[in-house]
Structure formats: C-alpha cells, structure tokens
Amino acid sequence: MKKVRAAVFASGTGSNFQAIMEAGLHDDVALLVCDKPGAAVIDLAQDFAVPTFVFDPKHYDSKADYESAVLEHLRGKNITWVFLAGYMRIIGPTLLNAYPDKMINIHPSLLPDFPGKDAIGQAYEAGVSTTGVTVHYIDDGVDTGPIITQQKVSVFPDDTKEILTNRIQQMEHKLYPQVIQQLMKSEQ
Questions:
Q1: Residues 128-151: pLDDT tens digits?
Q2: 155 in a domain, yes or no?
Q3: Known binder of ligand: residue 129?
Q4: Which of 5, 8, 157, 181 is the most exposed place for a label (fewest CB within 10 A)?
Q5: What is Dmax (Cα atoms) for the chain?
Q6: What is the pLDDT of residues 73-103, one digit of tens each?
C-alpha cells in the first residue's frame, strides 16, 4: 500500500496550516512550500517539524522555472496530494500536469461567487446575508475547479469585515482538515 503524503502550500500566517496540523494530520504532511521568505507559516512548520521549501519567485526567470523547482521538491518527498492553504499564486501547467485531480484549494466564499483576491471584502461590500467557504479541485482558472464541498457562513447586519473574516476562518479551520482527512483516507 502506497503511503499518502501531502504538501501544503502557503504564503502568509499559516492559520489553515496550523489547523491541518492540529487536526492530527502532521504525520501525513511531508512538506510546506512557501513563496514568501519570512512568512509566519515557516516558523509554524518548524514548530511542527515539517520540512520546508521556501522560494522567492523574483529569483526565477519564469513561473515554469520556479514551478519546476517546487516540483523537484515534491517528487523528492514522494508527495501524492497538494493542499493550498492561503497560497497566493495561481498554479501553472507545470504543477497542474504533475498532480491532476490531486491539488485542492480552500477559498473564503461560496464559489462561483466572489472568486479571486479579497473574497471576504467582496462579499462584505456586496452586502450579502450569506457567504461561506468552498473546498475545490484546482484547475487552470482562478477558483473555477470542481467543487468538493461548501459550508455557509452567515453575515449579520452589525458585522465588520474583521468579524466576518474571523467567522469564515473559523469555518475554514474546521472544514479543510475534515476534507483533507477524507480525501487521504479514500486513497489508503
């Protein structure tokens, strides 16, 4: 039986990475990939003894070049699944072709509503009464891949953007580890 091994891609504070680790998935996560040297998620990975590959895209001639470097690290760790957790880059063909139907993202809206950057701000400004969280497969579009699951989050009249952000992140931290566990268990 082939061991299921995951990589988590993140760019920032790492709150979803931390939720994944604290949900008991630390034995399955073999690599953190980060595109922001100095990001807080790197320290979290060290706290959980997860190896890291940190790169600065500015040091590469093209997206294909840095994705090839990432792919080399993924293959070196025998990674079978890739989970994006606040990774702020669009995945290109180099990685998509290497991991078809094995790359997953979490997005802070009920897709197809509010794709792309600042989805929470978009929902807040639109004045919707419900938004949420979507876990989906990654394809060559921006937040357009097949949806795995969604969870609604209410927006209350007295919410600030910060309060709404916190409520959505709480849902992300609950939902994403559950989905990851189910996907990885289905392969064992």
A1: 999 999 999 999 999 999 999 999
A2: yes
A3: no
A4: 157
A5: 52
A6: 999 999 999 999 999 999 999 999 999 999 9
In a domain, 170, yes or no: yes
Q: Which positions are annotated as active-site residues?
A: 107
Asked if residue 57 has pLDDT above 90, the reply is: yes
Number of domains in the chain: 1
Q: Are 124 and 164 in contact (CB under 8 A)?
A: yes
Residue 168's φ and ψ, nearest 5 degrees, are -65, -45
Supply the range of the domain harboring residue 71: 6-185
Q: Is residue 87 part of a domain?
A: yes
What pLDDT is stored for residue 4 in this prediction? 83
- 90 marked among binding-site residues: yes
* CATH, residue 76: 3.40.50.170
| Structural domain contains residue 1 | no
| Residue 14 marked in a binding site | yes
Q: What is the DSSP string of 149-173?
A: EEEEEE--TT--HHHHHHHHHHHHH
